[in-house]
Amino acid sequence: MADQGQVEVAPPERVRRHRLSTRLWHWLNVVIVFVMLMSGLMIFNAHPRLYWGEAGANFDHAWLEIGSTATEGYLRVGALRVETTDVLGRWTDPQGVVRRRAFPHWATIPSSYSLSAGRRWHLAFAWLLAAGLIVYTIVSLANRHVQRDLAPRLAELRPKQLWHEIRQHARLRFPTGEAALRYNILQKLSYFGIIFFVLPILILTGLTMSPALNAAWPWLLDLFSGRQSARSIHFLCALLLVLFVLVHLVMVVLAGPVNEIRSMITGWYRVPPARDPAP
Amino acid sequence: MITRRHLLAGGAGLLLPGCDRLDRSATFREGLRSAERLTMSAQRLITSRDALAREYSADLISPTFRANGNVMPQAPDYPRLAQGGFADWRLRVDGLVRRPLSLSLAQI
Question: Is ipTM over 0.85?
Answer without folding.
Answer: no
